[in-house]
Write a structure and sequence with these properties.
By secondary structure, this protein is of the alpha/beta class. The protein is about 40% helix and about 15% strand.
Length: about 220
Amino acid sequence: MGDDSYGISTDVLLRYASEIKAVAAAGVQVGIVIGGGNIFRGLSGVNKGFDRVRGDQMGMLATVINSLALQSALQSVGVPAAVLTAIGMEPVGERYAKEKAIACMERGMVVIMAGGTGNPFFTTDTGAALRAVETEADILLKGTRVDGVYTADPEKDPAAQKYASLTFDEAYAKNLRIMDLTAFTLCHENRLPVVVFDMNAEGNLLRVVQGDPVGTLIAAGSCNR
């Protein structure tokens, strides 16, 4: 969305594509899950008279629109990309399957997994955690507009302090809202480390992948990068 109030910013889209291209060029297999809040949020739809299930379905479609936009942006900069959808939407995108996603990544393609989990009442965070566990990812990177996890909301509390690293248990004990609880528990139980970082800082994505101390690392045990 960028600085716009709605929709897709071409400048942001191409910047993200460039960031992802640098990571893919380094030989890293990349799977992506995108939200759809720039177009439609399921929960906000409830307040506008939509049934929750219908609202969440509309939100899933919004993630597909964003995924197709990112696929086009990646292809325009020379990065092969596939969109796999959680619900049948051929020819918009192929139906998601773990084996298909892994095969595409092994062929050097960026795989964009759209449509959330395919079910209402689950957030995109949960969709990202589920897909990361299914495709046997080494790490889940949560790109946000802040540069990590803080003791309080840094946009509201200037005294908030950033955590360099946390264990899942520490995050639970401190009641830190890093991801929704379902997604967080899925990562914890499967010992999938998470890095929360600022996606809008140029070069950050590659630095995270290279192991630089960017953002906040959340892991099951000791948090050494």
